């Protein structure tokens, strides 16, 4: 939806540029700013998902919306279990619902230098393990390190009893389909927030303005702030922080 709108705006800009004229730069900027504003307001009107809490005892990692690090954490005995999430999608279904997720499950122990990593597909009614490996513990940046050594056999080629045992291992730690509703809603909010921020920062850059601590975008385009409850300086519902 948004991509089609931007493609249309680019086409209009090209036609204006081809027509020439001394004020072309100003006209191009005005047209692009108007398009960015329209799409920003369109996205702002979209309804957020209902408030969803993560299943206990998982807690939301503070600042997760602004990083590529874990979303949820919990303690399990002497272990710390961290959950990372991303959408499973292709370039052709960007407007579709988020109905399948890809999660990284990091199980670490303070006494160990490596973590046990599960890469899983998560659905509303199922969870499937794609791979299991040992990797160096995640650094402070929150990024999962790409392994540089052998990470183990293909999971699907393991003995069925061993595969079942690994599934039981993560299920005991609360990693199952009960996480789906929260992670689905959280990812939707993050993508919505990132898209609004993209339109906003693009407009500020093109107009030569510096970002402000208030919702400068609404003020810049005039009128009272949009009534939608999610247009705030942080652009995110408090329950997903």
UniProtKB/TrEMBL annotation:
Instruction: Give the source's domain of life in one word.
Output: Eukaryota
A Pfam family name for this chain?
A: MAM33
Q: Which GO terms describe its cellular component?
A: mitochondrial matrix
How far does the signal peptide extend, from start to end residue? none
Query: What InterPro entries does the annotation carry?
Result: MAM33 (IPR003428), MAM33_sf (IPR036561)
SUPFAM superfamilies per the UniProt record, alphabetical: Mitochondrial glycoprotein MAM33-like
- Please state what the protein is called: Mam33
């Amino acid at each position: 939806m948004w991509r089609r709108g931007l493609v249309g705006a680019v086409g209009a800009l090209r036609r204006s540029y081809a027509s020439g004229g001394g004020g072309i730069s100003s006209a191009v900027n005005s047209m692009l700013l108007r398009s960015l504003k329209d799409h920003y307001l369109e996205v702002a009107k979209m309804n957020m998902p209902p408030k969803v809490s993560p299943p206990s005892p998982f807690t939301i990692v503070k600042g997760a919306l602004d990083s590529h690090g874990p979303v949820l954490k919990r303690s399990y005995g002497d272990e710390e279990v961290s959950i990372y999430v991303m959408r499973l999608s292709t370039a052709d279904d960007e407007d579709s619902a988020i109905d399948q997720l890809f999660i990284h499950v990091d199980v670490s122990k303070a006494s160990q230098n490596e973590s046990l990593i599960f890469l899983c597909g998560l659905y509303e009614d199922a969870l499937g393990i794609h791979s299991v490996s040992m990797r160096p513990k995640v650094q402070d940046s929150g990024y999962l390190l790409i392994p540089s050594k052998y990470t183990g056999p293909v999971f699907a080629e393991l003995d069925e009893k061993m595969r079942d045992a690994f599934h039981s291992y993560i299920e005991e730690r609360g990693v199952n389909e009960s996480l789906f509703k929260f992670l689905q809603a959280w990812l939707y909010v993050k993508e919505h927030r990132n898209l609004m921020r993209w339109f906003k920062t693009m407009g500020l850059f093109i107009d030569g303005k510096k970002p402000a601590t208030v919702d400068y975008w609404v003020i810049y385009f005039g009128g009272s702030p949009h009534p939608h409850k999610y247009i705030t300086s942080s652009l995110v519902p408090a329950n997903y922080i």
